[in-house]
Amino acid sequence: MANTYTLIEAKSLTSTTASITFSSIPQTYTDLLIKYSGRTSRSDGTADSVDVSFNSSTSNFSGRILYGSGSSVGTSTTSRWLGSENSGASTASTFANVEAYIPNYTGSTYKSVSVDAVTENNGTEAYSYLGAVLWSNTSAITSITLTPAIGSFVQYSTFYLYGIKNS
Amino acid sequence: MAAGATYTPIATTTLGSSASSITFSSIPQTYTDLVLITEGIGASGGSYDVDMIVRLNSDTGSNYSFTYFYGNGSSTVSSRSSNSTNAIVGGVNDSGRSMSICHFNNYSNTNTYKTFIARINRPTIVAAFVNLWRSTSAISTIYLYPDSSKSFAAGFTFTLYGIAAA
Fold first, then answer.
1. CATH code of residue B80
2. B83-104: string of b/e by CB count within 10 Å (b at 16+)?
3. pTM
């Protein structure tokens, strides 16, 4: 890729991990893009949501989710949702995919996030999600932490943070 | 992906003052796809939440159609419009921030109509739009404006990227 679309940091888990953090994010890009493929250890369901915090803050988040299961569609409000993951009761070796785009992350305005996510469970249950998340804080984003709501990220989950420049 | 400039900023605009529209013109025909990123807030004007309209190559004819679905946290909607005089690629709200990501695939192909997909986040909804422009012309100009004669506020950002397949 051109230097306008640069890998900042990659994480590939070798063991079960409660959360992952991208810290000391350079302030030299225009936008950020997170791509991750994950699965959690939650044992009592086929999916687990993932919560985000920026700069260690868990406050002032809001959002909307639109999702489809293949047979129905739904919508809900959210706060810190940044994707959903396959979990322990879903088909083995099946990992979800999530992409989250954060424009103008260094600016002094509130931060918008666009999230697309999919969890597939071998045809028995699968969800596609679209998410809109707003962090009502004017600070530049310098760190991002992702934490499953119930379980922990399992081995082979991968996380990539890209920086995108508009010039 | 082949090495080289595959995700290249073509043009970017950050508004220094409010504006009723912005235009990307003379778009190079050297890429395969285009990606448009927008983010910002509408100029103050009395509690509105409107679509960000697009017209391509100054075409004002009834040559657009779009299908969309959205959720607001409590209900979902899907609908479509045919033979429209424009398409929709974003949102503009005067009290909260909106952002959108729109993919114009095969924008320079002169054999096919142009399909473009927009993911749109507005303060109260999350949405996806699939748009069609029934023209075989290569896209050379993208004209954006808020619906209902509203304006973009200062600080609204628009960036157009080109993606080359090889």
1. 2.60.120
2. ebebbbbbbbbbebbbbbbbbb
3. 0.94
